[in-house]
Write a sequence for this structure.
């Protein structure tokens, strides 16, 4: 991977200063992967893959366009243009930011009386650099996030996913070699320590929410490119220390069916994980089940002897792409 852009003309110190002043500069990092001799031995294609991760409070469209002539990110001129588009948007956000916003992230903003949600946005662009007439490129892609949860053995009733009911699934939970074609017949998917490796086919259009068990919730928003929702959990032991008791992996992807790209074509996808510091609204179909839990004390998330702040905050996702 090659680091391409990280607020180039604003600078790291300016971002730090803005954060200290309570501003939201929407920081981001863009990574680039290009083919070489080693990659072509594994996957016989010339390609360019861009992966952008943004932290922000609100959403604004980001232009990840490339040169229609096909040179795209390969030229330093186009690379500078790509960076400058993002830098311009960052500067605009800084100019419009309100003091105190950072302090109110995910809470009720006393100046407006509204919640200030925060989010991680993942953008992926894959460009087929093969010569015209080359064999069609075929691939699967997913953007996965790991969520820190309450103890799924002790509080599994409160660690759940809403919005996947009725979906057709490929379920590899019982045999990783053979996916069983099944249907999700329940409204909730509870994470109670059982092994889970399930692809929910076509569920990216659903309104999917995740409850990590601390009285907050996440929205999963797949805007473009991705089709399926993926849920993975390796299973957790009952006794002794097991980190899997407080982790679950959820994401969006093009998994159930492959995507095909001809030479010169490109594909892009966008996935957002948005955090709300409150319980989700009751579903329209009736009772939401168990009542809202009060936020769990820090001792439920931090091991004995750990200092608060050394570990990830409850429910916060760590993005990864596979």
């Amino acid at each position: 991977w090659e680091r391409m852009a990280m607020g180039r003309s604003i600078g790291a110190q300016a971002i730090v200063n803005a954060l200290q002043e309570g501003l939201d500069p929407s920081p981001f990092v863009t990574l680039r992967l290009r083919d070489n001799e080693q990659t072509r031995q594994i996957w016989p294609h010339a390609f360019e893959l861009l992966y952008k991760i943004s932290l922000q409070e609100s959403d604004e469209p980001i232009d990840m366009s490339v040169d229609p002539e096909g040179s795209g990110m390969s030229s330093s001129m186009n690379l500078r243009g790509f960076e400058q588009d993002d830098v311009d948007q960052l500067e605009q956000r800084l100019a419009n930011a309100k003091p105190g916003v950072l302090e109110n992230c995910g809470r009720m903003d006393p100046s407006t009386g509204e919640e200030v949600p925060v989010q991680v946005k993942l953008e992926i662009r894959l460009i087929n650099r093969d010569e015209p007439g080359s064999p069609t490129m075929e691939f699967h892609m997913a953007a996965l996030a790991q969520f820190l949860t309450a103890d799924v053995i002790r509080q599994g009733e409160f660690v759940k996913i809403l919005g996947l009911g009725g979906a057709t699934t490929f379920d590899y939970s019982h045999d990783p070699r053979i996916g069983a074609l099944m249907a999700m017949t329940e409204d909730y998917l509870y994470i109670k320590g059982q092994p889970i490796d399930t692809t929910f086919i076509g569920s990216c259009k659903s309104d999917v929410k995740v409850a990590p068990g601390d009285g907050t919730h996440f929205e999963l928003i797949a805007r473009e490119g991705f089709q399926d929702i993926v849920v993975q959990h390796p299973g957790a032991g009952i006794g002794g220390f097991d980190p899997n008791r407080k982790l679950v992996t959820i994401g969006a992807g093009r998994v159930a069916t492959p995507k095909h790209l001809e030479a010169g074509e490109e594909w892009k996808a966008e996935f957002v994980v948005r955090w709300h510091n409150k319980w989700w609204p009751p579903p329209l179909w009736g009772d939401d089940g168990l009542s809202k839990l009060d936020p769990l004390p820090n001792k439920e998330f931090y091991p004995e002897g750990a200092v608060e702040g050394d570990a990830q905050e409850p429910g916060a996702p760590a993005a990864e792409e596979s």
